[in-house]
Specification:
alpha/beta, elongated, 308 residues, 7-stranded mixed β-sheet, 9 strands
């Protein structure tokens, strides 16, 4: 994939949010800004234009002059800090933007020979803040606009995109969904808790919280947890998956292959454990083979005699 830097625009007054600090608003337990930073982790340098704040990963800070000067002024402040020949430009309020879309934007920019590749939403509208640009044409057009209008403050983004040779790609569902209102925030929070999304969202959130960049087969771990819960005891499920992770880390690489190997060993052990429980001791009856579920009938009778 083409090497690139990233610019994330995290300023603005958020008037429709009542002036709230929109980049810090949480969706799925993570700040909107951190969610966006997570999908451009492959960038060589990430520049955030806006007020300084704690972020989940290191960034370079920039600020437009004057603050609140609008997206073109913010973009100009950001592009002054980038070094790569391509730059990914994103707004900080895209809760569902995924790495696949980022790769598609950067890949299209690299293969098309165009000056920019941007997303179009379901309505066919251009999304210049979900886009990849060649750095020099971007700088050129910003400089020309500043000269023509005397300042970039308050100018609309369409003045920039009208001057560039664009490649357009269709948006994945919700990739360009942005959060401008509290209704948008509520819809985003509800969406990630849908049954079909919640597990992936949770795993991504945990990895970001722990600073882990590891892609593993979650199906393998879920199967292991099920086998441990059914074949041993319910509390064995989380404890076993924890130990698998620890063993993978101790193995040296700690990568997906190490996790898979540790999970395979633990799953085989859980299977042997379950088989022993089904077989029981030699000569044992069905009640004894079923495991230590509680006092047997004789114990129960003795207890009743003592308490009667």
């Amino acid at each position: 994939m083409t090497a690139y830097d990233a610019i994330v625009l995290a300023g603005g007054a958020a008037k429709r949010l009542g002036g709230a600090d929109k980049p810090a608003v949480r969706v799925g337990g993570r700040a909107l800004l951190d969610r966006v930073l997570g999908v451009c982790r492959d960038a060589g340098r990430t520049v955030v234009v806006g007020g300084r704040r704690a972020t989940a990963r290191p960034v370079v800070w920039a600020r437009e002059e004057p603050p609140g000067g609008g997206p073109l002024a913010a973009l100009d402040a950001g592009v002054r800090q980038v070094e790569a020949g391509a730059v990914l430009v994103l707004s900080a309020d895209l809760p569902f933007l995924g790495e696949r879309t980022v790769r598609q934007l950067i890949g299209t920019l690299g293969t098309s020979g165009r000056e920019a590749a941007l997303l179009t939403d379901a309505g066919g509208r251009d999304q210049p803040l979900v886009a990849a640009y060649r750095t020099e044409p971007l700088r050129r057009e910003l400089a020309l606009l500043a000269t023509e209008y005397g300042s970039l403050t308050g100018l609309p983004l369409r003045l920039l995109t009208e001057e560039l040779d664009l490649a357009r790609i269709d948006s994945e569902p919700l990739a360009s969904f942005d959060c401008d209102t509290w209704e948008d925030i509520s819809a985003a929070r509800a969406r990630i808790r849908d049954h079909g999304n919640v597990l992936d969202e949770w795993i991504t959130a945990v990895k970001d919280e722990l600073g882990i960049e590891l892609d593993v087969d979650t199906g393998v771990l879920l199967d292991l947890a099920r086998d441990a819960a059914h074949g041993v005891a319910r509390p064995a499920a989380p404890l076993t998956t924890f130990l698998v992770g620890y063993a993978a880390a101790q193995a040296g690489s700690g990568g997906p292959a190490a996790v898979a190997e540790a999970a395979r060993k633990a799953a085989a052990l859980a299977t042997r454990w379950a088989e022993e429980a089904e077989q029981g001791a030699p000569g044992a009856g069905p009640a004894q083979a079923s495991g230590p579920a509680g006092p047997d009938e004789g114990d129960a009778g003795e207890e009743a005699g003592r308490t009667g």
